[in-house]
Amino acid sequence: MNPIRVVESKVAPMDRADVDTDQIIPKQFLKRIERTGFGEFLFYDWREEDFYLLDRPEYAGAEILVAGRNFGCGSSREHAPWAIQDYGFNVVIAPSFADIFRTNCTKIGMLPIILPEDDVKALMAAALNEPGCTATVDLDECAVTLPDGRTVEFSIEDSIRDRLLNGWDDISLTLLNEERISQYESDRERDGPVTSVLL
Predict the structure, then answer these.
(1) 114: which strand partners?
(2) How many Cα atoms occupy the beta-carbon half-sphere of 90 within 13 Å?
(3) What is the pTM assigned to this prediction?
(4) Angle subtended by helix axes 158-166 and 99-107, to nearest 10
(5) CATH number of domain containing 168
(6) Residue 191 lies inside a defined structural domain of this protein
(7) pLDDT per residue of the chain (199 residues) written in tens, 0 to 9
(8) How many angstroms separate the first and last alpha carbons of the chain?
(9) Which strands form 111-114's sheet, in the order they lie side by side?
(10) Among the four residues 127, 128, 183, 189, which has the most C-beta atoms within 10 Å?
C-alpha cells in the first residue's frame, strides 16, 4: 500500500450520521473477487438524493471525505473502505467511526481521523458552502489544517501511524521479520519424508 504523510486536497462532504457499510457499497456489488473496481458503486443508492454531492465537478479529485458521527457502522464488510479508496479518497474525517470499519481502513492504507464534533461541523460547513475548499492532513504532525487556516490535532495509535507512514500492510510487516522467520524455520527442521514437491 502507498505511504501517507501529507494530504493536501479538496474536501468532499457526506453530511449524514450513522452511514452504514451497505449504504457505502450496496450488497449487490459484492460479487467481485478483485479488491478494485468498487469506486464506481460508492453510495450507489444515494446518487439521486439531494444530499449526495460527491459527483459535482467542484469536488472532483477530492482525497478527503468529511462525514457525520458513527461512519461505517453496520456489517463489517471490507468492501466499504475499498470502495471509498477506489473512488479516490485517502482520508476520512468524522467525529466517530465504527471500530471494524476504522481498522479495515488502516489495513489498506486509508487514514480515518477522529476530530471533535465542532471541528467536523466547521469542516463540513466549509465543504458545503465553499465547494472546492481545501484542507491539509499531516500524519507526521498528527494535525489537520482546516480551510479557515486553523490547525486541529488528532490522535492515532503509534503502531497504526507507523504502518501508514511507511505503507506497511500485514504482509509487509511480516516480511520485516523475514530473516528471523527463516532462522526460526531452519532451527526447527527435522528429518523425515519430504511432503512438498519442488518444480
Answers:
(1) 94
(2) 22
(3) 0.88
(4) 30
(5) 3.20.19.10
(6) no
(7) 899 999 999 999 999 999 999 999 999 999 888 889 999 999 999 999 999 999 999 999 999 999 999 999 999 899 999 999 999 999 999 999 999 999 999 999 999 999 999 999 999 999 999 999 999 999 999 999 999 999 999 999 999 999 999 998 877 777 777 777 777 777 777 676 666 665 5
(8) 31
(9) 111-114, 91-94, 64-67, 6-14, 134-138, 143-145, 151-153
(10) 127
Q: Is residue 66 part of a domain?
A: yes
Let me know if residue 199 belongs to a domain. Answer: no
What domain count does the chain have?
1
Cα-flanking dihedrals φ and ψ of residue 117, to 5°?
-55, -40
Locate 49 and state its grid cell. Answer: 438524493
Q: Are strands 151-153 and 91-94 parallel, antiparallel or unpaired?
A: unpaired
Residue 6 is classified by DSSP as E
Domain that holds residue 26: 6-185
CA distance linking residue 45 with residue 42, whole number of Å? 9
